[in-house]
Amino acid sequence: xxxxxxxxxxxxxxxxxxxxxxxxxxxxxxxxxxxxxxxxxxxxxxxxxxxxxxxxxxxxxxxxxxxxxxxxxxxxxxxxxxxxxxxxxxxxxxxxxxxxxxxxxxxxxxxxxxxxxxxxxxxxxxxxxxxxxxxxxxxxxxxxxxxxxxxxxxxxxxxxxxxxxxxxxxxxxxxxxxxxxxxxxxxxxxxxxxxxxxxxxxxxxxxx
Amino acid sequence: xxxxxxxxxxxxxxxxxxxxxxxxxxxxxxxxxxxxxxxxxxxxxxxxxxxxxxxxxxxxxxxxxxxxxxxxxxxxxxxxxxxxxxxxxxxxxxxxxxxxxxxxxxxxxxxxxxxxxxxxxxxxxxxxxxxxxxxxxxxxxxxxxxxxxxxxxxxxxxxxxxxxxxxxxxxxxxxxxxxxxxxxxxxxxxxxxxxxxxxxxxxxxxxxxxxxxxxxxxxxxxxxxxxxxxxxxxxxxxxxxxxxxxxxxxxxxxxxxxxxxxxxxxxxxxxxxxxxxxxxxxxxxxxxxxxxxxxxxxxxxxxxxxxxxxxxxxxxxxx
Lengths: 208, 319
Known about the structure:
The structure holds two protein chains of two kinds.
Chain A: H1 8-14, H2 19-28, H3 34-52, H4 54-71, H5 84-96, H6 99-112, H7 125-133, H8 135-147, H9 150-160, H10 166-173, H11 177-194, H12 199-207
Helix pairs in contact in A: 3-4, 3-5, 4-5, 5-10, 6-8, 8-11, 9-11, 10-11
Chain B: H1 2-16, H2 26-45, H3 65-76, E1 79-84, H4 86-92, H5 100-110, E2 112-114, E3 117-131, E4 134-138, E5 144-148, E6 154-160, E7 170-178, E8 181-183, E9 186-189, E10 212-213, E11 218-226, E12 232-236, E13 242-246, E14 252-255, E15 268-276, E16 280-288, E17 294-299, H6 304-316
């Protein structure tokens, strides 16, 4: 992408650069990469913290941006102007190293009703009250999430929590969109069953 | 129909699971950003083949080992930041389109860290223009910095007008006292300064004990404005005492809770906040200090509460 003539700061003041432009610019001006951090770090941190707790999220987000920074010259701007699939893909690899920890925490929650992830975090009294109200559902859900294959859980949570589209999840994980759909379908079927609804009967109902 | 509802319910429940987990704090994010910038700067200047200086596991949390110790020690120390007028600007104003290698070093210095919280940045310069919710400062080296504001940004200026002093306004008045009257040198509009026992001393002209007096003999009183006129007003203190105050063309009016429109273009302006992309600063505080004077901000750590406390104390200060 050609550099606009004149002062780049003035140009950027008129229209905020997209992620790809920031990454391209950061190859020449490494400091510019901080803009990508400003744009995505909070949401990525929250996503990882919901899965593994704040302590692990600190490290994973730091490592994600460090890895992205090192690989920025290889980013293909023609593939995606939005860097979220790229960043969440890097994070997914790092989260994958914590699979056992994630499953252990989900099982602990399902067993005890005390969520080891949320107990690490500051929550309001209203949050706590809401969690108590939904405790049974939440424990069932935690149990179901713990039984999912890592790949299925990754797809489900990227869509549910990171708000990525099927295509973006596919790009993030380097898999076909069809695989995303099948993994998501498998994950949701398990979740539905865990929440007390028989997927077979649902299917029969839908045929009427 | 039921199927669709149940399926939506199942997905909604998944979405809601652990939704009470919040976003990370600004301080947490700012710390991670600081490390990213450190890596970027190292990348710019390092020798071929040398590893980046962004330490693993140092992104959003205090680094381990001795560095962690240093960070914690620095946070615990009470650091006094003096943000002066023109003199300070020279120290802070370095960056932008400076050509060649000087540009990199300059970029690192355009927004300098506030002692006591390295992630908090400061810049000083002449206020060039106010554009809606943002403003542009020009540093003494001629570089422009865009300062953005939000509803939470605190704005203070000493370039108010005597006409800004109206009945009912909370006020702090400083000046020499005589025969029970204060000749106002500085009138601070807004919440009064918190009590400072070390400053209590006998005052002049019957303004005894309940008032504070500086080493120069100036008296400070706080209260509410009454009977405001072109030549003065009366301060009604919390105990009901009435202190006459005279004003003159030399009286400086300091607005502690100003709006951006009350800032004076061309005046030295200080902004404190978090660095953004492209030479911008997301401001928590904007202040126009006394001409040739200084603005004091004492920061003791990066937590939101400690920064807010420092800002409130700085804005409530008498000078």
